[in-house]
Amino acid sequence: MTAKVDFFYEFASTYSYPAAMRIDRVAEAAGVTVNWRPFLLGPIFAAAGMTTSPFNTQPAKGRYMWRDLERICQADRLALKRPDPFPQNSLLAARIAQALPDDGKRAAFSRAVYVAEFGEGADIAVPETLGRILEKLGIPAAPLIVQAGSDSVKQALRAAVDEAKAHGMFGAPNVVTSDGELFWGNDRLDAAIAWAARIG
Amino acid sequence: MTAKVDFFYEFASTYSYPAAMRIDRVAEAAGVTVNWRPFLLGPIFAAAGMTTSPFNTQPAKGRYMWRDLERICQADRLALKRPDPFPQNSLLAARIAQALPDDGKRAAFSRAVYVAEFGEGADIAVPETLGRILEKLGIPAAPLIVQAGSDSVKQALRAAVDEAKAHGMFGAPNVVTSDGELFWGNDRLDAAIAWAARIG
């Protein structure tokens, strides 16, 4: 049996960018399969009384994060361009990712969204940005954007948020192993994959 | 010339514990010298409108931190016992560390405080706990505790907090390299030492 992990990512989350770009590579090397699980931090932040990113409400933490992300992107050879506004409204991107099958298409779309948002500074709240990404991947954009607004997709995304809460998530990205162990942050990605490979 | 880093640590900070226990080892292997710089997060948190640890105000984050610290301590073969109350009042410990010369005594005292606090769950706000640690290190406790209350020590610690703020610190532990680069967290300790070794 192949070891599996759930990768919970939020499109507005900065550290989800380098994590999304490398998780399949790290997991594959360890013989671990990744379930790509888009979710939303907004409802979790709101329930904790937060109205925006802590990187905005705590200026010193925000300044540090951008510099830290710059170092990480440099080491990982990833482009970095700060999107405006930050954080981005990630709802439509998350619904489209949820609507796509998790057979490689969802991962490819998600990586392309992160590259557009944090590599090129594009606004991912704009349907045209997401439509262009889908078309580049050979996926007809219009029907998928319609499907992304369906009740079943909305419900699936809400269920993902509920699952994220139940796992104790409070930030992004996260990896959850099959025994329910939670690993938070791009910094814990390697430990999470090693854990998954060990428990099998 | 030997590369040097400033290690800014707060005795109440959980992740400062594993960092303090390994930084000299990691730095020595890279030919880097560590300046041990006790400081206080309290005034920095207060200036940001926070009255206690975010691990207390955000329960999910707190639960995750204790589990994460457990995994780290297990990997590093460090004992872990949660002190009560948390966070501990770290003022006297910080003043004593500041009063000690940074010639190995300050580092040895600081490590011993972390072991007592997070390895044994002792209350480090109690002078007896700190006195016992000093005596074990062969340092007469009474005169040092008097010296820790002197104006010069208080002022030196306040200056350390001002320096921490000027470097943009918002948490602990931190490593600052001689070119002013800030690295936050036990997770960035290795990157910080590698950076210091590279710039020389």
Write the layout of secondary structure elements.
Two copies of one chain form a homodimer.
Chain A: E1 3-9, H1 16-29, E2 32-38, H2 42-47, H3 54-57, H4 59-75, H5 91-99, H6 105-119, H7 127-136, H8 141-148, H9 151-166, E3 174-177, E4 182-184, H10 189-199
Parallel strand pairs in A: 1-2
Antiparallel strand pairs in A: 1-3, 3-4
Helix pairs in contact in A: 1-6, 5-6, 5-8, 5-9, 6-7
Order of adjacent strands in the largest pleated sheet of chain A: 2-1-3-4
Content-based structural category of chain A: alpha+beta
What is the 3D shape of chain A? globular
CATH topology of chain A: Glutaredoxin
Query: Rg of chain A, please?
Result: 16 Å
- Mean pLDDT rating of chain A: 96
The interface involving the most residues is between:
A-B, 18 and 18 residues
Strand content of chain A: 5-15%
Distance between the termini of chain A: 7 Å
Characterize the quaternary organization of these chains: homodimer
Unreliable stretches of chain A, pLDDT < 50, 5 or more residues? Answer: none
Q: How many strands appear in the DSSP assignment of chain A? A: 4
What order do the SSEs of chain A take from the amino end to the carboxyl end, as H and E? EHEHHHHHHHHEEH
Integer count of domains of chain A: 1
Q: How would a crystallographer describe the biggest sheet of chain A?
A: 4 strands, mixed
